[in-house]
Amino acid sequence: xxEAEVHKALAKLVRIFEEEGIPYAVIGALALGEYGHxxxxxxxxxxxxxxxxxxxxxxxxxxxxxxxxxxxxxxxxTEHGVKVDVLSxxxxxxxxxxxxxxxxxxxxxxVRGARFALLPLARFLExxxxxxxxxxxxxxDLADVLDLIRSASLGAEIxxxxxxxxxxxxxxxxxAAQTHDPYA
Length: 184
What we know:
Blueprint: H1 5-20, E1 25-27, H2 28-35, E2 43-48, H3 50-60, E3 65-67, E4 74-77, E5 82-88, H4 106-109, E6 111-112, E7 117-118, H5 121-134, H6 139-151, H7 164-177
């Protein structure tokens, strides 16, 4: 574990962020693994402020990173051939439309995990739930929450820490996770 190109790309990115003092939070499948549910992934997802994204691009485009789509946070680690998706603090998960849950500023929200900075579990769950609730192409985010509830044995009381916008969906998934899967 941890030797795939995506893990090398993550380690490189984290080293840059930490050496340059850029606040960040890893999200997506790599964060999911830190919380207790492992699933494969081929990209690195992080949250940065718009300002810090621009600083990173100014210092690293053409030096190990390239833009996959000019003017966006869709980047490529050219050394490892790994996609890096930077999601901007203040924007909205899923369909991108305004809602009570937004990507938080990592400077004020991120916590240090064992290997990198990530969001507190409740904030991470809120993003996954809001994304899956509002974008049909992001239903895997709901499945990620369901799988994490099972894998990490999350308790129902976590719902009390969530934004009311996503609380009922978490409770629905938590209830579903209590059902025994006879094929598992």
